Amino acid sequence: MELDEVRCLAVLGLRRSGRPAALLARRAAPRARVVALDEGGAPPDDTVAVLQAAGVEVLVGPAAVLPDATDLLVKSPGVPDESPAVRAAVRRGVPLWSEVELACRVLPNPVVGITGTNGKTTTTELTGAILRRAGRAVAVGGNVGHALAAMPGEVPPEATVVAELSSFQLEHIERFRPAVAVLLNLAEDHIDRHGTYRAYADAKLRVFENQTGEDVALLCADDRGVLDEAAAGRLTGAARRGWFSGEPGRREGPAGEGLVAGVDADGLLWVLRDARVRSLCRRDALALRGDHNVLNSLAAAAAACAAGAPVAAAAETLRTFAGVPHRLQVAGVVGGVTYVNDSKATNVAATLKALTAYAGGVHLVLGGYDKGAEFGELAAATEGRVRRALLIGATAERLAAAFAARAETVGARATPYVVCGDLGNAVRTAAASARAGEVVLLSPACASWDQYRDYEQRGEHFLELVRELRAKG
Fold this sequence. Notes:
This protein has about 475 residues and is α/β, with parallel strands linked by helices. Helix content is about 35%, strand content about 20%. The protein contains 16 helices and 20 strands. The strands form 3 sheets. Strands 7-8-6-9-10-11-12-13-14 form a 9-stranded mixed beta sheet, covered by helices on one side. A 6-stranded mixed beta sheet has the order 15-16-20-17-18-19, with helices on both faces. It has a 5-stranded parallel beta sheet with strand order 3-2-1-4-5, sandwiched between helices. The chain is globular and about 70 Å long.
């Protein structure tokens, strides 16, 4: 469907991406009736007034019913498919677009699209930082920062858009085509939303489906989930494919396909540029800690270089990039104990990766909204690294059951745990027992929606709790 064919366009969900999507729809389809819907009620800010002033009809709460004349529905990523408006659209055969699809119909800029289960935000911000250091015009957005629908008319046409892309944003694309697409990893996540791992993975893989031979697809050669999809032939699209690996000395991806970025046997990171291996920096010189950040750094360097950045800009940025908030962010040191905010770790795989950044002596805060994940592997992985697990939120009892099961299996080797209920109690409990040189790590392995608006609010609360500890000395 073309936008100039639309006579009634509905935008569902009026929060972070819905508001700019409705405003963009009003400009991009000037002859269409544009209706903005929010089944949860009016946003607490001036969104309704702004949209109405732009000529958008607004229906909220019980009145947010899909108009009979709707011939296109643009759905915000936070809206589940169980929404009455979505069900009505599916029943009537109305096309569903994500906000990303709407934006790409108007946005002329080349896009570097980055997806995966974990590491998306870090890799997206790092790729943007490399391009900025190279003197390139760049806009970072998507699932982080600005919504893509807010960029048309605001971002110069020569800028490269670096977009973090979630499964929710990719599941309803039609023509969206990134010039460079990156798949970092695949692990079970958002089963509560997608229903099955297969549906979740299929949504992620759509990032490649519209790419042509002019485009680049970058994939992790070390990730079992990615390798399984490649072996099954599910990586569609016609892009030039390149692999990256953090395994020292490795030079080939699966099926003998060459690597475009890797680490040599001496720990030196490299990237392929103009068919030549070019050095980046030593692994121990990376600004970001943890095994997972070696892969994030390689992915960002390869993506930025594919988008035109010189290798020197990538090398310097990898040595100096300070990271992103709520991702292994040092909140402070109190009494020799380091407090680390990893609130963005909203699934088990992310927490497993975070634990690689620390050799031991970790007091691990776990728990939150239940997305249907299993916690047995996590409980086992903490053994020998974590002194005690502090369990909070809606999943506390399920986590406790996983740790208790490990104790029945391995006895004294199992990680001790305590149910704390909420984050404040967990931090106070950890502070009372942690010794100098140890780490209190908030890496919940769960979403935040049981007790917080989002992972950012949870992380900010953790930072505030640490500030209070520092104030008390």
